[in-house]
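// run 5 | inverse folding | seed 20
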């Protein structure tokens, strides 16, 4: 099982729609950075524009992308580097990366990168994925 992830370099990065760097990220950008730093390389989009409310026109888009590069796991199997997906307003539209067995790193719109307890978000939990990607 992977060890605990050092989150210090990510904490405080501001939200930016479609952001993919230290000057601003969205939840997908943060997920990609954390996984890339751990040696798991995933594409940063699906080839289509990511509009601010992409989840309204294609609610399963995030899940489809994750299922291409990982496998769904049970919440009892969670370990560091697993991706957790949350539903808000009935749509799976937010993701984070587990940093240990009970906490994940994520960023919400209009906020900065932070660490949260999975238990706090349990009512929004949708699915978890163990990512494969291209190993480096």
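// decoded
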């Amino acid at each position: 099982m992977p060890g605990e992830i050092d989150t210090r370099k990510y904490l405080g990065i501001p939200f930016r729609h479609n952001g993919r760097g230290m000057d601003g990220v969205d939840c997908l950008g943060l997920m990609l950075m954390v996984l890339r730093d751990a040696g798991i390389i995933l594409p940063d989009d699906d080839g289509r524009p990511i509009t601010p409310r992409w989840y309204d026109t294609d609610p399963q888009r995030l899940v489809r992308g994750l299922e291409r590069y990982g496998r769904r796991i049970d919440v009892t199997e969670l370990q560091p580097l697993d991706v957790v997906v949350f539903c808000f307003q009935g749509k799976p539209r937010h993701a984070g990366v587990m940093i240990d067995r009970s906490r994940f790193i994520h960023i919400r719109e209009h906020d900065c990168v932070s660490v949260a307890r999975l238990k706090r978000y349990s009512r929004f939990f949708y699915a978890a994925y163990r990512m494969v990607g291209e190993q480096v």
